[in-house]
Amino acid sequence: MSGHAHDEVLITALECAERIGITVRALRLYEQHGLISPRRTSKQWRLYGRNEITRLNEILALKTLGLSLRDIEKLLRNHSTDLTHTLSLQRDALKETRTRAEHGLQVIDALQAKIGSGAVVSIDDLTHLARETNMIESSKDTPAWRRYEQMRPRTEVVMDPARFTSFAGAYSTDDGTISIVSERDGKLFYRIVGQQDIGIFPESEDRFFMKELPVQISFNRDGNGNIQSLIHHQGGFEDHAQKMDLNLARSIEQKVTQRIEDQRPMPDSELILRRVIEDHARGEPDIDGMSPGLGMLATEQKNFIQSELEKAGPVKALSFKGVSHGLDIYDVEFENSKMEWGFAQTFRGKISHLYLRPTF
Distance of CA 145 to CAs 131, 140, 263, Å? Predict the structure, then answer.
């Protein structure tokens, strides 16, 4: 036991290694890299408690994503471990591993069936098999890694406010999601059309972050050093947006603002929502009809949503409630339950936001 906390249990290096399933040598290696700092007894025996084992979970989760110890050392230096973030990272990494394994099994089943029918397995079949069954993936190409990185604490750096005007303007993604960056009173603000301005703060020359949300905005320059695009980093996704005409963006935003003031739904709003619910009830959400970020989330959650809709039963009635932050909000009555659904579309007709929650 230790005087650090009356109810905290500390275990030796051997106990720690055996319980976690690693070697004592690995513990020493992590310590040499500065990743963990076990406590010491008067005789210099290493002891591991809650904080050290929480950090070990984070290290092992990052190793699962393919990061080297050198990469992990750079990533975790001067940052304490957040158990909530670590659990999210572990969950995401395991879900991605499961998804890749399921895809690989489907490919194997298809090839076994092909061989069983007497067909010849082609080079394309074999290369596809190798790709789909390769469980080692570049860590920075996975949503789990990106989500973890985006959730990390950020540090604001000093920047001359006079430079903020170069980032100002309107930006549009391929699916039609519009964001507007503006400078005001020596500060920089970012908003999605129909939503409120949120302050963004510099963490490097062309990278900014929100203090209110785990969101980062990075800007890209052309060969002449002019800002030409931005990337919106959130929820494990990176949304790329090109600079667009500011007057056109403001015109589109004015229409959204007027809809909010009038509490008027989008054209064919109810029909669109009915189709979205029907697609999810079949387990076949229209991913092509969504923005890329929403499509990724819909794919991840489609089994859960389908299960909830199966329990809810058929739709009996939809009732428009109003417009909030550009989303059309509906009360949906099912045979066995009631839910609130909200969604928004871009000016190019893609669904950019979608949520549902039970109501009582």
Answer: 20, 6, 39
* pLDDT score at 7: 58
354: left (phi over 0), alpha (psi -120 to 50) or beta: beta
Question: Could you say which DSSP state residue 327 is in?
Answer: E
Two tokens, residue 355: 């949520």
pLDDT of residue 221: 95
Render the burial of 65-76: b for 16+ CB within 10 Å, e for the rest.
bbbebeebbebb
246 with 235: CB under 8 angstroms?
A: no
* Per-residue pLDDT, 243: 97
Number of Cα atoms under 13 Å in the Cβ half of residue 219? 31
CA distance 296 to 95: 13
Q: How far is CA 102 from CA 134, 240, 348, in A?
A: 12, 29, 34
Q: What's the whole-number mean pLDDT along residues 190-208?
A: 94
- Please give the distance of CA 32 from its chain centroid, rounded to a whole number: 32
Tell me the C-alpha distance between 343 and 325, whole Å.
10
Between the CA atoms of 56, 58, 62 and 65, what dihedral angle is there, to the nearest 10 degrees? 110
Q: In whole angstroms, what is the distance from residue 331 CA to residue 277 CA?
A: 13
Q: How many CB atoms lie within 10 A of CB 309?
A: 21
Neighbouring CB atoms inside 10 A of 146's CB total: 19
pTM over 0.90: no
Total residue count of the chain as it appears in this document:
360
Structural contact between residues 242 and 234, judged by C-beta atoms closer than 8 angstroms: no
Which position has the token pair 């930006």?
171
Partners of 173 in the beta sheet?
241
